[in-house]
Every structure is written in structure tokens, then in C-alpha cells.
Write a structure and sequence with these properties.
- This protein is an all-alpha fold and 127 residues long.
- The chain has one domain (5-126).
- Helix content is 80%, strand content 0%.
- It has 4 helices and no strands.
- The chain has helices spanning 5-33, 35-45, 56-88, 99-126.
- The longest helix is centred in the middle third of the chain and has 33 residues, at 56-88.
- The radius of gyration is 21 Å and the shape is elongated.
- The termini are far apart.
- The model has no long low-confidence stretch (mean pLDDT 81).
């Protein structure tokens, strides 16, 4: 029997949840990076010139989300091994949130706000 098996399996489930979330963020970043193709197709289908249409921001934001997803996997891996070591240790330790998780959350919120404003501006340029 593996000592503290339930703790280890909970740690692994949490790690896998972080990895799934990171993959989703990266997939959304890839989709957003390709958002310019949709905007160009829409403007051509509308058969009108859209001077206020900017596609560079979606490419940079998409690349940023790809980077954030990769950093999430790195952070999740570090956290997994740190928690694994704490579970196996004989002494008890405090469980605390890391500043990197908070920083990533703030970064994602800022990206979401920027994306909302960006899409609203693009929709306004198309109409």
C-alpha cells in the first residue's frame, strides 16, 4: 500500500486539471491568433473598406496566451513536485498560495479586458 495515496492522487488530479486548463488557454490563444483571418474574410464579404480594422493586436494577444499556457504548465509542474515532497515529508508544513498563480490570474484578467475592448472595436469597424 502506498502511504498517503489519497493525498498523492489528489495532487495528481490537481496537476492534470492545471494542464488541461493550460491546454485550453493555449488553444484559445491559437484561435485568437488566427482571428485576423476571420476579420479579413468578413470585411471582404461585406464588400466595403474597413479602415479601422487592425489585426496585429489579435496576433500579439494570441501569442501572449500561448506563452501564458506554457508558463501555466511549468508552474503546475513545479507546484506538483513541491506538494509531492510536502506530502512525503514527516513534518507538517503550511499550505500557501504562490505569487506566480496570482500574477497569472491578474495577467489573464488584463488580457480578457483587452480582448473585450479589441473585439468591440473590431465589430464597430465592421459595422
Amino acid at each position: 500500500m502506498i502511504p498517503h495515496f489519497t493525498d498523492h492522487s489528489a495532487n495528481e488530479r490537481t496537476y492534470l486539471a492545471w494542464v488541461r486548463t493550460a491546454i485550453s488557454v493555449m488553444a484559445f490563444g491559437f484561435l485568437l491568433e488566427r482571428f485576423d483571418i476571420f476579420l479579413l474574410f468578413t470585411s471582404r464579404a461585406a464588400a466595403k473598406v474597413t479602415e479601422g480594422l487592425h489585426t496585429q493586436a489579435s496576433q500579439w494577444l494570441g501569442l501572449g496566451l500561448l506563452l501564458v499556457g506554457a508558463l501555466m504548465i511549468v508552474g503546475a509542474t513545479i507546484r506538483f513536485y513541491r506538494n509531492r515532497k510536502a506530502i512525503e515529508a514527516a513534518d507538517s508544513s503550511m499550505y500557501g498560495d504562490s505569487w506566480t498563480a496570482r500574477g497569472m490570474a491578474v495577467l489573464l484578467v488584463l488580457m480578457a479586458i483587452f480582448l473585450t475592448l479589441y473585439v468591440a472595436r473590431q465589430i464597430a469597424a465592421l459595422s
